[in-house]
Every structure is written in C-alpha cells, then in structure tokens.
C-alpha cells in the first residue's frame, strides 16, 4: 500500500508513520506546517516522492520541488500514486484538502475533524459522487464505524467525553499549561484546548451526523472520565453495544489504514481486570454550553457549524497566544453564534466563506476588547 500523510509532524501524523514503518507501507507524500526539523527527519527516513509545507520560504529551504501552501496541500491530498490519504492537519487548514481528496475519489483516513464539522454535507456529497471512502480516525467515530458494521440500524449513538482537565474542578486561575494537561489523551494543542472547553465533543456530534447519516435527535453525549469506552450504540430493544479500548490513537489509526483487515494490537491491549471502575455522567446542555452548541450545530442549517468552527479556531489561537483567558473562549464563540443567521451550504467556497466569517467575527470581538 502507498500513502500520503498530511500533518505528518503532528501527534496523529507521527503515529501514522510509526505504523506505516512497522508494516512497510510506502509513504509517497508528506505534508507539514512549519516544523522543518521533524519533517526533514521524516523525509530522510521515508523518502517520499512529494513533500509539502505551509510557507513558500520553507519550501525553498527544503528543496526545489517542495510544494507549499493551499495548492501544495491539495496536491498531496489527491496524489494518484497514493492508495490512501491520511488527513491529520490540525484546524481549518484541513477542510479543503479533505474536500479535494473526496472529489478525487480517494480512500481517506480522516483525523481532521474540522473538515466534516464545516463541510460535512458538501464533502459527503463529493464522496458519494466520486466513490471516495472516508474512514474516521477520531477514536469515537472509529468506534462507531465498527459498531455500525452490525446490519441493524441503532436507535441512538452515544459519544463519550472525558470531560477534560476541569471535570472535577478548576483552579482559581487557569493557566495555559493547566488546559494543555489532558487527563487521558496525548494530543496536539488545539484539540487539547477544545477538549477542555468540550467544543471537541460538540464538533464530534457534527462529525457523527455527517459520517453516519442519523437524524440529529439520535446523537447523544455522556461524560466518561476514564476514556475506556469510546462510543456506544443503543438498539431498538434497548440493548447497548460499547466499543472499549485503551486511550491510544495507534489503534484507530491502524484500523483505518488497513480496514477491513485487523492487524495485531499496536500497543498493550486493554486489561479489563486492571480497571478501577468506569464512571458515566450525563452532559446536560444547560450545564455545558459547548454541548448546547453541539445540539444547535446538528439541528440548524450547516453554516452555523462552519461559522462556529472558524470562530473557535481563532479564539483558541488567541488563548494559546495568551491574549484571552480560558473562560472567554466559549463566551466569544457563543456571541458569534448568536448573531449568525444559519443557512444551508452548497459548495466548498461557501463553506470556506462561512469559516472566514466566524474567524472575522471572533477577531472583531477579541480585538475590540484589547
Ligand atoms: N491527537 C489526537 O488524539 C486526535 C484525535 C482525534 C482527532 N484528532 C484530529 O486530528 C487532527 C490533528 O491532530 P493532532 O493532535 O495530530 O494535531 P497536532 O499535533 O497539532 O498536529 C497538527 C499537524 O498539522 C500540521 N499543520 C497545521 N497547520 C498546517 C497548514 N496550514 N499546512 C500544513 N500543515 C499544517 C502541523 O504541522 P507543523 O507541526 O509542522 O506546523 C502538524 O503536522 C486535528 O484536526 C484533531 O482534531 C486528533
């Protein structure tokens, strides 16, 4: 098998390459943002035919045939030589490459959640037309994908959320490092912040809607601090099926790379007898504003999710740059969502425009405060 990995220097990209190396998968394309030293090591190790980076000056530093920017990423997402494209770029930069891969009829291992959150309908339609196949890497959706291999349609999908670092209480003053200390998963900065606000779960509700085509009222969230049960489905007779596993992204990545084949466990498998107990709690929207946004995003026309996604991207960047406190993140997103009048999105340009609108509105609010 030959693969192209977008976001190769990140957490998911690095784990993907670890698995690729173990099974002698050929890496024909690598794309990263700005981490040139890690990318150079990967180029040495995997010898890809195509390489892409975010900025032109970095492409020039790396060599004469290195691709860059939006066009570079889109090219790496659609390589004819690649049997499978892994999209593990963080944030809204991943949306268009996913769409291009879908248009090109590729087999896509999709980690980037912003793609389906903003452009789920448009990407889904492109994939249906071209015959592209999307394999979710996000652990909850990877679990649901497996649970939905049952021929029977479930009545309900349940996504679990760890609750993030502040589920059991917040320090008086929240520092960036407190937010970045996720209790169960090791992830990139943006998704770790999204987990602390629970926006990550809100986005996963939207992803589930587009991946599995169930009506919005069938999508539920439960808080489960141990992150052992990743998702559940409830059948007509009330029976629940759950997917369990360690909090290790190698497992869903490996499954997405080789589906339908199952390979030996990539890490220590779950030992049920060693677990100290599993807890589950309701996640009522009245208590968790991000979950309320999640329900709105799956019920209202899709521009709302794209606008919220754009706003979230900007607000999280601002938080990580120390420009706003943690508590402001959700306030700004909610403010942006309140002034937006949702409408259906019918093409990728409209999707990207709605994302830009969300970013701009959030920027105006934050800069107005500064
Ligand atoms: N980590 C997890 O456990 C997990 C689980 C489920 C879903 N996901 C999703 O998977 C995606 C990646 O997550 P992650 O944790 O791996 O993030 P990460 O560690 O922050 O990695 C992000 C990757 O994207 C690259 N990148 C960022 N902007 C880019 C741009 N404009 N052009 C090209 N490359 C760009 C980065 O390159 P540089 O570092 O070189 O700048 C890096 O390789 C996210 O959408 C996340 O929501 C992650």
Short description:
This protein has helices spanning 11-22, 36-46, 56-62, 69-77, 95-103, 113-130, 139-147, 176-179, 189-197, 199-212, 250-258, 289-299, 303-320, 328-339, 348-369, and strands at 2-6, 26-31, 50-53, 67-68, 84-87, 107-110, 133-136, 156-161, 219-223, 229-234, 240-244, 281-282. The chain is of the alpha/beta class and 370 residues long.
Summary keywords:
alpha/beta, Rossmann fold, Rna Polymerase Sigma Factor, Chain: A, 3 domains, 7-stranded parallel β-sheet, 12 strands, 47% helix
**Share of residues in strands:** 5-15%
Helix content: 40-55%
Bound molecules: NADP nicotinamide-adenine-dinucleotide phosphate
Radius of gyration, Cα only, in angstroms?
20 Å
In N-to-C order, the SSE pattern is: EHEHEHEHEHEHEHEHHHEEEHEHHHH
What's the β-strand tally?
12
| Major β-sheet annotation | 7 strands, parallel
Shape, per Cα inertia axes: globular
Q: Overall mean pLDDT score? A: 96
For the biggest β-sheet, the strand order reads 4-3-2-1-5-6-7
Tally of alpha and pi helices: 15
Helices and strands in order, then pairings?
Elements: E1 2-6, H1 11-22, E2 26-31, H2 36-46, E3 50-53, H3 56-62, E4 67-68, H4 69-77, E5 84-87, H5 95-103, E6 107-110, H6 113-130, E7 133-136, H7 139-147, E8 156-161, H8 176-179, H9 189-197, H10 199-212, E9 219-223, E10 229-234, E11 240-244, H11 250-258, E12 281-282, H12 289-299, H13 303-320, H14 328-339, H15 348-369
Parallel strand pairs: 1-2, 1-5, 2-3, 3-4, 5-6, 6-7, 8-9
Antiparallel strand pairs: 8-10, 9-12, 10-11
Helix pairs in contact: 4-5, 5-6, 6-10, 6-13, 6-15, 7-10, 9-13, 10-12, 13-14, 13-15, 14-15
The structure holds NADP nicotinamide-adenine-dinucleotide phosphate.
């Amino acid at each position: 098998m030959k693969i192209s990995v977008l976001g190769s220097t990140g957490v998911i990209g690095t784990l993907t390459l670890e698995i690729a190396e173990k099974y002698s998968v050929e890496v024909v394309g690598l794309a990263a943002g700005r981490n040139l030293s890690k990318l150079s090591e990967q180029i040495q190790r995997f010898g890809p035919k195509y390489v892409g980076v975010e900025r032109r000056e970095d492409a020039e530093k790396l060599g004469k045939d290195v691709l860059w920017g939006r066009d570079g990423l889109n090219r790496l997402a659609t390589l004819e030589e690649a049997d499978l494209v892994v999209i593990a770029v963080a944030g809204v930069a991943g949306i268009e490459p996913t769409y291009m891969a879908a248009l090109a009829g590729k087999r896509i291992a999709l980690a980037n959640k912003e793609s389906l959150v903003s452009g789920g309908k448009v990407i889904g339609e492109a994939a249906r037309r071209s015959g592209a196949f999307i394999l979710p890497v996000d652990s909850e959706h990877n679990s649901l994908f497996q649970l939905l291999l049952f021929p029977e349609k479930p009545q309900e999908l349940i996504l679990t959320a760890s609750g993030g670092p502040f589920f059991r209480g917040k320090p008086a003053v929240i520092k960036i490092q407190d937010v970045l200390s996720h209790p169960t998963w090791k992830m990139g900065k943006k998704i770790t912040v999204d987990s602390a606000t629970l926006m990550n779960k809100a986005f996963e509700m939207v992803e589930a809607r587009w991946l599995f085509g169930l009506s919005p009222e069938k999508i539920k969230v439960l808080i489960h601090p141990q992150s052992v049960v990743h998702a559940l489905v409830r059948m007509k007779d009330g029976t629940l099926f759950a997917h369990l596993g360690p909090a290790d992204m190698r497992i869903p990545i490996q499954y997405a790379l080789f589906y339908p084949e199952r390979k030996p466990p990539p890490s220590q498998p779950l030992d049920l007898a060693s677990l100290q107990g599993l807890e589950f709690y309701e996640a009522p929207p009245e208590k968790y504003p991000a979950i309320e946004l999640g329900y709105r995003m799956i019920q209202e026309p899709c521009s709302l999710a794209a606008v919220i996604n754009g706003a979230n991207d900007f607000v999280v960047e601002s938080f990580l740059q120390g420009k706003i406190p943690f508590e402001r993140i959700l306030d700004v997103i909610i403010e942006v969502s309140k002034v937006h009048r949702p409408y259906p999105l019918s093409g990728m340009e409209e999707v990207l425009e709605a994302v830009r609108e969300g970013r701009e509105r959030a920027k105006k609010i934050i800069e107005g405060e500064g």
